[in-house]
Design brief:
Blueprint (H helix, E strand, L loop, with lengths): L1 E4 L6 E7 L8 E4 L6 H9 L9 E4 L17 H14 L5 E6 L1 H12 L4 E7 L15 H5 L3 H24 L4 H13 L5 H7 L4 E6 L8 H6 L2 E6 L6 H4 L1 H14 L1
Parallel strand pairs: 3-4, 3-5, 5-6, 6-7, 7-8
Antiparallel strand pairs: 1-2, 2-4
Helix pairs in contact: 2-3, 5-6
């Protein structure tokens, strides 16, 4: 495990660092809301189709093995800037960035704000648009439907019961203020939106989606802008866990042909 200070107050981001070929771009994996990169991405990072480059399985500030400051804003921009600081400390870049769900939204913002650090993007069923809070659902809208005071006072228990034991196994590791603030900002999105930022990025971009979900909203516009949208069979939102082989194949193709 390695770490880097990413805030003036001394808060540190930590990551699992898998050594690899220094002659190839490092690969950075970013987890989704309430997750942690190790449980979600270790099997993918060492899969024969994806192993080789140095790989950083990085936990965003507030989540997993990283610090959980309560004086951090937890906007998507804040997360992206903290990751950029960690990547510079790790002496990597430009990197191949693989981001799942909220991690994909952070990856888009990172590529827009720190273009020198990102070579290629692989987005895994990532958030592209603001999320309505009504009706609340598992995920960002269900968390953001509470005020921070309500959530910290016990609303988190409602979220725990709604998301179930699998997701809660990593969500319970998050700082509760971090989880709530991140969910609020993820549901609110960015200005311009993550989708608009993605359309304008000059780097190769692939978007992996569950095949069973059907076309993405606005998929023709994404395709016209050069974003390769790749349906992955036999999976739900957690593509890398539900169908590891297909995920590895799709990601390897994305990084090989880009």
């Amino acid at each position: 495990m390695r770490d880097a200070q990413v805030t003036p107050g001394g808060d540190r981001i930590r990551w699992i660092d898998i050594p690899g070929d220094a002659g190839r771009p490092a690969r950075v994996y970013l987890h989704g809301l309430g997750a942690s990169a190790g449980p979600y991405f270790t099997a993918a990072a060492v899969h024969p189709l994806l192993a080789g480059p140095r790989s950083l399985l990085l936990d965003l500030l507030g989540f997993g093995i990283s610090d959980r400051p309560t004086d951090f804003g937890y906007t998507l921009e804040d997360h992206a800037d903290a990751v950029a600081t960690a990547l510079r400390a790790a002496d990597v870049g430009p990197v191949d960035l693989v981001g799942h769900s909220m991690g994909g939204a952070v990856a888009i913002v990172l590529a827009a704000r720190h273009p020198e650090l990102v070579a290629r993007l692989v987005l895994v069923d990532a958030n592209l648009d603001p999320v309505p809070l009504d009706p609340p659902r598992p995920g960002s809208s269900g968390i953001a439907a509470h005020t921070e005071e309500e959530f910290l006072a016990g609303g988190w228990r409602t979220v725990r019961d709604r998301v179930g034991p699998h997701w809660w196994s990593t969500m319970r590791l998050a700082g509760r203020a971090a989880l709530h603030r991140t969910a609020v900002h993820l549901a609110r999105g960015t200005t311009p939106t993550m989708r608009e930022l993605l359309l304008d990025l000059p780097v190769p971009r692939h978007y992996l989606r569950p095949a069973a979900d059907g076309p993405l909203p606005g998929e023709p516009e994404l395709l016209a802008a050069g974003v390769a949208v790749v349906p992955v069979p036999d999976c739900g939102h957690n593509i890398m866990l539900d169908n590891p082989q297909a995920f590895a194949e799709a990601t390897a193709r994305a990084l090989r042909v880009s």
